[in-house]
Amino acid sequence: xxxxxxxxxxxxxxxxxxxxxxxxxxxxxxxxxxxxxxxxxxxxxxxxxxxxxxxxxxxxxxxxxxxxxxxxxxxxxxxxxxxxxxxxxxxxxxxxxxxxxxxxxxxxxxxxxxxxxxxxxxxxxxxxxxxxxxxxxxxxxxxxxxxxxxxxxxxxxxxxxxxxxxxxxxxxxxxxxxxxxxxxxxxxxxxxxxxxxxxxxxxxxxxxxxxxxxxxxxxxxxxxxxxxxxxxxxxxxxxxxxxxxxxxxxxxxxxxxxxxxxxxxxxxxxxxxxxxxxxxxxxxxxxxxxxxxxxxxxxxxxxxxxxxxxxxxxxxxxxx
Length: 320
Known about the structure:
By secondary structure, this protein is α/β, with parallel strands linked by helices.
């Protein structure tokens, strides 16, 4: 990976993946892109940044050609809750953007990383220890775009030889960037409330159990999959991966072991609760472990300890 483009670089995953790749390959070799004006200071100061709308095929082609890109980490997308509120826009951005990326990759010989999600599953999927290959009938536009994206990436690999790879991420937790409208955002918001000494009002019920992952593991998964030898990769796209599994009630209890006064109550959002209920409780990631050596580093307790140590104290934002 000599010249790398990251779309959606200002997002929760993109902001940290960009910095990690720049540490490995050098700042000038990793081009961050997004729709922020101006970009976050950390991205702008550590390497190049360009404004890019992935639905603009011509602009994407010009960026890849001008910067001689050979690997694209395509992260630009609308997340689950936002996508459900704007389904037509979600299809345009999530599928239109991916189609553009794959076409540009085909023409310019680029490898592509595409992050799928546990949202690619649906209520008919086995909810416990969900296997790698199983029934997938997502009921959200976000899940539909993720499943369609997995299939399209596989098509471009088998039909055109584009080296497409990807994982199905669970909920992601980070102390660096705020979440961007996903169903598991509570698992980040709860830490900000705890650090401010406030009661957190959770939009999912106390027993809504889902797989989760700390951002350092999520970043490492993307990089290690793209660096893996191609031969053992039978599935290539949509690898199940996970690191920890908990409910909002269990996460609150883990935080109280560090902040005994922390309190949580519940104001359930019907939309996001319905989305969460359609996803697996836990997935089986043994295929990823076997084919490219996936192994998480952070448990629930280790994540909570690290989050509380590194999350800066912030004031309650207006309207939050």
